[in-house]
Amino acid sequence: MYKIENGEEILSSLDCVIPRATLDILSESRKKGLEIISEEDFFEEICLTLIREEERLENYFEVVEGIHNMLRKRAIDSQNMGELIEKSTSKRYTSSKIRRTLFNILLDIKKKDVEMIKKIDNIPYIRVLAFNSKGIEIISKIKEKSHVEVITSLAKSKKGDLYKNNNLFKTMIDFDIKSSNMFYQKYFSKNRCMFSKGEPDYIDLRIVNLK
């Protein structure tokens, strides 16, 4: 039977691959009730999506002939995410392929979307997640010397002409926001007060206090 690791075990396994300061932040977050999440936490949503979309699975990116029927079947008889991936892995389909396919389905990434994105000639935007005073200087220089849209505020970008008139730009931004929202819905499932100020992509999470 596939073993499901708890938060402490996941944290211990990260000890040799991330900085001590990051481990300390994760540890403190766990004390506040923000448990570390992994792909296992999305197992139920993935199974429900596989069942709901069974007649449309072929439309999703990386879903090739035959794999959709197998994944639909394994969604019924697997006990957890690890078992679902393990049972679906074969010489033809690696575990990495299965994992990517499952999350493409969960995130609603269709073949037609990826085909459109493949036609990109230039990077449509750069999204800055955080910056300090030095970062502000660098961002200003990038804006001066490049035509690439530099996003520091999603709210402003969604009101701009690029979002309204450029379908590729809109598609990528929407996927960006959707995947982020799905992650935070799971991450803050036991602390929904974190959503009291709005969606995480539009607010500074540091200003929201856990209750």
- Radius of gyration equals 20 Å
Write down how many β-strands occur, each being a DSSP E stretch of 2 or more residues.
Answer: 2
Please tally the helical runs, counting DSSP H or I stretches of 4 or more residues.
11
Order of helices and strands: HHHHHHHEHEHHH
User: Structural class of the secondary structure composition?
Assistant: mainly alpha
Termini, distance in Å?
Answer: 37 Å
Proportion of residues in extended strands: under 5%
Q: Which range best describes the helical content: under 10%, 10-25%, 25-40%, 40-55%, 55-70% or over 70%?
A: 40-55%
Strand order of the largest sheet: 1-2
Which term fits the overall shape? globular
Unreliably modeled segments: none
**Average of the residue pLDDT scores:** 87
Largest sheet: 2 strands, parallel
Description of the molecule:
The protein has 211 residues and is mostly helical. The chain has eleven helices and two strands, in the order αααααααβαβααα. It has helices at residues 7-13, 20-31, 43-52, 67-77, 81-88, 95-106, 111-117, 133-145, 154-159, 161-165, 167-187; strands spanning 125-127, 149-151. It has a two-stranded parallel sheet with strand order 1-2. Helix 3 (43-52) crosses helix 4 and helix 3 (43-52) crosses helix 6 (95-106). The longest helix is centred in the last third of the chain and has 21 residues, at 167-187. The chain is globular and about 55 Å long. 9% of the residues are buried. The mean pLDDT is 87.
